[in-house]
Every structure is written in C-alpha cells, then in structure tokens.
C-alpha cells in the first residue's frame, strides 16, 4: 500500500512521556518543515510512572541540545549506575546489573572470560569487583566520566537518570512549544478515516476537527488510533511475562540517595524503589492470577522506606506488542505500541528508539510500504530481544517457594532465549545479535547473577598461567577500588548540580 501525498501536518495524539518526547524531538530534528500539533486531554491522566531510565536517554538529551544540569534540576533527577536485584535467583541473594564495561579486554578476548576462568578455579571474588559502576553504586558514589583521564576507568562511566515523570513531560512540553509545536487541549471523541482506511482527522469534544497526514498515536494503553480505529492486533506475551498489574505510590525520602534502582522480588512479582531528589517512587508489579490486588497493595505499603505521600494507584497492563507499530499513516509510540514491564527500565528507551526509527524512515514524500515493513521488522526485533532479556530474570531462578516462582522457573521460553542460555551454559559466551539493546556483559551479569553457571570458558583465557591470571585480575580490582575512592558521594554530586542552578 503506497500513498504519494506529501507529509505536511503531523498530529501527535497524547501528551504523556511518549507524546512530549515525540513532539520535542521531531520539532528539533525536522527543523520546522512540518506543522506539528499535539492533542491531549487534561481529563485523561497520563500513567504518571516511568521514572527509571537507561543510558541511551543521554543521547536523546544531546540530540535535543538539552543542558544536563538544567534537566537534572527541572526533573528532580538523580543519577543511575545500574539496577540492584534482590531475592531473584534465590531468597537472600543480591546482584546488580551495572551499566558499562568490566575490567579490560586482553588479546581481543573479553574480560569476562578471564574472570570466569579464575572464578571457576575458586580464586576470584564476585565479578562486580571489576566494574566501576557496580562498585561506585555499592559505595553510594557518582561522578560524570572524566575527560582528562582517557586511560582511566573514570573516563567511562555510563549513567542514566531517575526522574519525576510528570516534571519530565512538563519540561519537554516547554521545550516543544518553544520549538513551534502547537497544542490542542481536549478529548478526542471521533476518529475519521479516508476511503483507503488511512486516518484523515480526529474530532475533539468541542467539535474541532484536527486533520493530519501522519498521526503518531501516543494515547497510552487506550491505543486510540492504532487499535481502537485500525484494529491492528496485539501479541499477548503473558505466558512468558505473567505480571500484569502494578500498584504505585510515592513516599517521603529516607536514607541516602542511591545511585541505582532497586528491584526486590516478591512472592508474585517484584517491587521497585527509585529515589529522586524530593521523594522516592515505589511500585509493586505482580501477576493477578497468582495474587489478589489487596495482598499486592499491602505488600507494597508494608515495604516502604518512608511515609506514603499519596494513596496507591493501580495500573493494569497486558505484556506484549502491537502486531505492527506502523500501520497505514499511524505510528504507535509509547504504551500504545505495547508494553513488556518495567523491570529493566526499557520503555522510555523504546519511545526514543521509535522516534529515531521514524526519522530514519520519514515518509516525506508519502507512505511507501517497503519502508513501513522495514520499520516494523526493526521494531519487532528490538522488542523481542528486550522481552527475552526480561524473561531471563524470571526464568533463571532456583526459587520454588511460591506458585508464581515455580511457574516462572518451569515455563517454556522463547527459542531465541533458549539458544542464549544454552550457549552461556556451555562456554560463558553471549553473542549479541545485530544491534540488540543489551550487550554481552549485560546478559552475562544477569545470567551469572541469577545463578546460571557456565561450564567452561573461552580457551584463550587459559593462555595466561594461574599467577599471570590472578595478577591481571588483581591489578584491575585495585585500580577500580582506587577510582571509587576518589569519586564524590552521589548526594554531594547532586547537591552541587542543584546549587549551581
Ligand atoms: P500515557 O502516559 O498514558 O499518556 C497517554 C496520553 O494520551 C495522555 O496525555 C492522555 O491525556 C492522552 N489521551 C488518551 N486518550 C485520549 C483522548 N481520547 N483524547 C485526548 N487525549 C487522550 N518506563 C521506563 O522507561 N522506566 C520505568 O521505570 C517505567 N516504569 C513503569 C511502571 C509501570 C507500572 C508502567 C505501567 C509503566 C512504566 N514505564 C516505565 C513505562 C512508561 O511509564 C511509559 O512508557 C511512558 O510513561 C509513556 O506513556 P505514554 O505517553 O505512552 O502513555
């Protein structure tokens, strides 16, 4: 299906994180060549969660020319070096998925293989001792990478943010409007289609008709255009990702500002803790077929660090993805395109990635089916690999203490994940496919952290004799320790950013 009408008017339906991220970035990247209008209803609230990000968000900010210190002040952000997982592989155990590299490669072989050999010999401590991000996170420290020490681990500190989702949307709205985006407030009550099924316009409650050539559906779980109108269809993944609800509640800050997200496994799901400058965001993600809503709410409320600041709010979702995220002249971005669950904080990244993919395939001269097909293939690949990574956290466990964990431990898993697990078990190797989001070391940390044990290691790792191997590891551990010593406390780093405003 091809349409040769040139694009002039872009309509974004929805003003949550997805809508305003799309508006801000398209207004910047498309340089005022199109009219961009965002339609949102003050009566229909946004999901209001989505506070933990991954390092790619910095690319988004850079593309927009955002001043990072200002961003941190305006969104009450803190810095994030990774995610701590408590009680996942086994009750009482913890590990962290830290961003960034471990140690350093030798003879082109990844560091992890050397560590694995030493660990298999019983002579190496936990792999986190060779990760600056993980050791700094444990110590509550943070600094941005230092550009004047190119050979030091301090030059490579990938980080992300914890941010207030409401403030973030407001910040992006200010940015987008100052770059020419028009905003229409009101509820969309009707969607009009052309004879070929393409969307022609949306009609607001007050009768205003907003017409467009390209529609970006950012209407959240309602999926107003992509599903309610175009009936695109949805692939349900709840047999692999059984969590389908969450209670969320903010509470008063207490204790130190942690530079990482905490994800604690619970009897039928898990609980997040995300510390911001002014409050802590908390939520309990659970599987409704294994736990009642009341029990899930009471687990959350009984496990807060500080006094709750509101009543808990419930969110329902179905894990999975839209059959096509681009259908006719509608591109679904954000929750309207699907949702896995927030365990690895990937949703905001997927919004960013969808926008940059759309810019890559921008239908300037009309809609070409080959472009749309390629866009959808890339989108599916990205989502499916993230899905596998999240499933791994549930499946690779020794827990059988509740029916939920027993189900996850024994459930069938996608073939793509099975292959990764088998390869890792045999040799500790992970092969990153194409440009899938999570790199080898991300997978390795989670695999090992969840208790999956590699039987062997790469043969090149045995070219060092035992003393050389342990000296190599010892030096790196030493350097990482020294680097952490000179880093400032996370709380002090933020205080300096705030004070400079
Ligand atoms: P919404 O926020 O729901 O916005 C929808 C918009 O559409 C609203 O402005 C609404 O007014 C508008 N709208 C709807 N219908 C109409 C209509 N008829 N007329 C006019 N306007 C309409 N992501 C992360 O990256 N990290 C996380 O830590 C994270 N945690 C999460 C935890 C939970 C429990 C959930 C459910 C999600 C989480 N996410 C997280 C995902 C993240 O919240 C979303 O990706 C992000 O907020 C984008 O939402 P959205 O803009 O697509 O939808």
UniProtKB/TrEMBL annotation:
Q: What is its EC number?
A: 1.14.19.-
InterPro entries in the record: FAD/NAD-bd_sf, Flavin-dep_Halogenase_NPB, Flavin_halogenase, Trp_halogen
Q: Establish whether keyword Oxidoreductase is in the entry.
A: yes
Q: Which Gene3D superfamilies match?
A: FAD/NAD(P)-binding domain
Superkingdom of origin organism: Bacteria
Keywords of this entry:
Oxidoreductase
- What are this entry's molecular-function GO terms? oxidoreductase activity
Say if the entry is tagged with keyword Oxidoreductase.
yes
Record's protein name: Tryptophan halogenase family protein
* Organism, as annotated: Massilia aerilata
């Amino acid at each position: 299906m091809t349409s040769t009408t040139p694009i002039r008017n872009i309509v974004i339906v929805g003003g949550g994180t997805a809508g305003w991220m799309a508006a801000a970035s398209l207004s910047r990247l498309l340089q005022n060549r199109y009219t961009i209008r965002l339609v949102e209803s003050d009566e229909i609230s946004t999901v209001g969660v989505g506070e933990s990000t991954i390092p790619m968000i910095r690319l988004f900010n850079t593309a927009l020319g955002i001043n990072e210190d200002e961003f941190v002040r305006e969104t009450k952000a803190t810095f994030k070096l990774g995610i701590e997982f408590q009680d996942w592989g086994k009750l009482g155990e913890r590990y962290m998925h830290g961003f960034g590299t471990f140690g350093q490669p030798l003879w082109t072989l990844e560091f992890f293989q050397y560590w694995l050999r030493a660990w298999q010999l019983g002579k190496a401590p936990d792999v986190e001792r060779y990760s600056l991000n993980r050791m700094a996170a444990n110590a509550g420290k943070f600094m941005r990478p230092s550009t004047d020490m190119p050979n030091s681990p301090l030059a490579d500190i990938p980080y992300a943010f914890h941010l207030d989702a409401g403030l973030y949307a407001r910040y992006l709205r200010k940015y987008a409007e100052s770059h020419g985006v028009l905003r229409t407030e009101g509820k969309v009550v009707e969607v009009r289609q052309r004879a070929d099924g393409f969307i022609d316009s949306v009609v607001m409650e007050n009768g205003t008709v907003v017409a467009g050539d390209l529609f970006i559906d950012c209407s959240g779980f309602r999926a107003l255009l992509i599903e309610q109108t175009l009936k695109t269809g949805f692939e349900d993944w709840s047999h692999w990702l059984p969590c389908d609800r969450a209670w969320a509640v903010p509470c008063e800050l207490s204790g130190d500002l942690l530079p990482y997200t905490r994800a604690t496994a619970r009897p039928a799901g898990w609980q997040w803790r995300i510390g911001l400058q002014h409050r802590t965001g908390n939520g309990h993600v659970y599987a409704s077929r294994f736990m009642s809503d009341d029990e899930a709410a009471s687990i959350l409320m009984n496990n807060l660090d500080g006094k709750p600041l509101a009543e808990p709010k419930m969110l329902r979702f179905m894990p999975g993805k839209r059959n096509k995220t681009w259908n006719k002249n509608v591109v679904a971005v954000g929750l309207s395109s699907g949702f896995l669950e927030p365990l690895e904080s990937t949703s905001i990244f997927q919004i960013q990635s969808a926008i940059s993919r759309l810019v890559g395939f921008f239908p300037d001269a009309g809609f070409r089916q080959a472009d749309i097909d390629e866009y959808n293939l890339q989108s599916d690949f990205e989502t499916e690999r993230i899905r596998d990574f999240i499933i791994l956290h549930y499946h690779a466990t020794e827990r059988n203490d509740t029916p939920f964990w027993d189900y996850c431990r024994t459930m069938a898993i996608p073939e793509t994940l099975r292959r990764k697990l088998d390869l890792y078990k045999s040799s500790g190797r992970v092969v990153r496919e194409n440009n899938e989001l999570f790199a080898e070391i991300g997978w390795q940390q989670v695999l090992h952290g969840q208790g999956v044990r590699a039987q062997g290691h790469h043969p090149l790792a045995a070219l060092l004799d035992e003393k050389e191997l342990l000296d190599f590891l010892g030096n790196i551990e030493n350097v990482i320790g020294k680097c952490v010593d000179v880093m400032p406390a996370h709380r002090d780093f933020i205080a300096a950013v705030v004070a400079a405003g």
